[in-house]
């Protein structure tokens, strides 16, 4: 089971309290986790990735084992700690302003 931590507004939209747990078959990649997340919670489609390009939305970041994985390709393998559920995959809403 892969554990996913979502920002508050996406938890509210998906009606998830705490972490989302997903069955993701190997290989566990960023894209596979996001595909599983959107399949289980269809209301999240288009909120994390663009509908047309499947690229990460500008103010969304991904973290795995305390490393920023936001610019990694969708095919990038996630660490074993994420794949085993020992550590959660974080989807973070970035903040901008001045």
How would you sum up this structure in a few lines?
The protein is an alpha+beta fold. The protein has helices spanning 8-14, 30-40, 80-83, and strands at 2-5, 20-22, 60-64, 67-68, 89-93.
Textual characterization of the structure:
The chain has a five-stranded mixed β-sheet with strand order 2-1-5-3-4, with helices on one face. It is an alpha+beta fold and 98 residues long. It has helices spanning 8-14, 30-40, 80-83, and strands at residues 2-5, 20-22, 60-64, 67-68, 89-93. It starts with a strand and ends in a 5-residue tail after the last strand. The protein has a single domain (2-93), classed as Roll (Ubiquitin-like (UB roll)). A hairpin with a 2-residue loop joins β3 and β4. The chain is 22% helix and 19% strand. It contains three helices and five strands; from the N terminus they run βαβαββαβ. It is globular, with a radius of gyration of 12 Å.
Annotation keywords:
single chain; 98 residues; alpha+beta; Ubiquitin-like (UB roll); 22% helix; globular
From the 3D structure, determine the CATH topology: Ubiquitin-like (UB roll)
CATH superfamily: Beta-grasp domain
As a percent range, the share of helical residues equals 10-25%
Please give the oligomerization state of what you see: single chain
Topology:
Layout: E1 2-5, H1 8-14, E2 20-22, H2 30-40, E3 60-64, E4 67-68, H3 80-83, E5 89-93
Parallel strand pairs: 1-5
Antiparallel strand pairs: 1-2, 3-4, 3-5
């Amino acid at each position: 089971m892969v554990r996913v931590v979502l920002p508050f507004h996406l938890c509210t939209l998906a009606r998830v309290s705490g972490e989302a747990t997903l069955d993701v078959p190997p290989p566990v990649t960023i894209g596979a986790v996001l595909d599983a997340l959107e399949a289980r919670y269809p209301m999240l489609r288009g909120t994390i990735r663009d509908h047309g390009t499947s690229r990460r939305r500008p103010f969304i970041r991904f973290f795995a084992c305390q490393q920023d994985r936001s610019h990694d390709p969708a095919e990038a393998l996630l660490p074993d700690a994420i794949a085993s559920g020992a550590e959660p995959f974080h989807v973070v809403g970035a903040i901008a302003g001045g």
